[in-house]
Design goal:
Length: 407
Amino acid sequence: MPEIEHVPKNALFGKYEVGKLLGCGAFAKVYHARNVRTGLSVAIKVINKKRLSNPNLVSNVKREISIMTRLDHPYIVKLYEVLATKTKIYVVMEFVKGGELFAKVAKGRFTEDLSRKYFQQLISAVGYCHSRGIFHRDLKPENLLLDDNGNLKVSDFGLSAVTDQIRADGMLHTLCGTPAYVAPEILTKKGYDGAKVDVWACGIILFVLHAGYLPFNDPNLMVMYKKIYKGEFKCPKWMSNDTKRFLSRLLDTNPETRITIDEILKNPWFRKGYNEPKFHEEPFKDEAQVKSLELNAFDLISFSSGLDLSGLLESSHDYGERFVLKETPEKLVEKVKEIGKGERLRVKRGKEWGVELEGKDGNFGVAVEVYRLTEELVVVEAKRTGSDSQRYNEFWSTKMRPALVET
């Protein structure tokens, strides 16, 4: 494609002509843009540094994205470059316009062969990144796009926990996850292996592609968690025995015995009709760069000992948060009351294990609910109830959340 000589005065960094808004969310906005020198269409994700809660988060995000620009795989959305100003980070990436994979499966489940084809492409992408120390840890429908040729593209690999996803169809889209894709070991809060978490999510995705519905599903959030924790799911009767056996290895609740990427690649069910993609591989030469990947986007968001599940649940709001703790509901409720009284807030008892704190002016408030997940674990849910978001964010991040996590 010939180089375009004329550069518009308002071009971003003198390089990109920014077009329409494609999507937005809590951390970022995504725009369609054109490289004025080459004419190439790109998507630019604009991350507002002020929206990143931890000061160290900005430099870590920039570092990880920079490393990820070196990834080059046919089934992963390519990151071209990272640019930054004092207030914003600009992530320039491949523009994929073929639509979302799950928009197609919503019209009807796929055959075993077609499900296998997309699963093969997904595993190829996941395995490629795992070999470089990068783990997605938040694989879900919004991350799976299709290019013009109908091939899978995993979007924002390793960044999905930091910023919202963009749908390739150009529709406005905010971050929306589901607990149905969360691996059971994440719920136990005993530590987990990023590679094994990704394999679990790939198993959920394969099930949905072929069966047409989720293996773990319930309108009651806690019932859903318990199904995942126990691994309670049933394959449809019409599904082949080979597929059922393969799914049982993928959705093994014990991460130690769950099938690995290497084992998947050798599995007869997986190997059927498999064509390994050809691409130019450049291994990391700098050991320091590889080691720096150990702290990935998921960890950066969940930097405290309380695991933030907000991005994995049914919706994400700027006034709500959920995380898992190893503590009794009674002790947590008493802690919330104690903090409220110390801050001279009105303390009102909610239903069962719930407490509402309210400022005297009525503009500031927080509601905390505690749900028992297992005998040892609970889910803590907090929501802003007043209109003063600034005071809520300050109170929650500096006083309430640290106190609960350290309980």
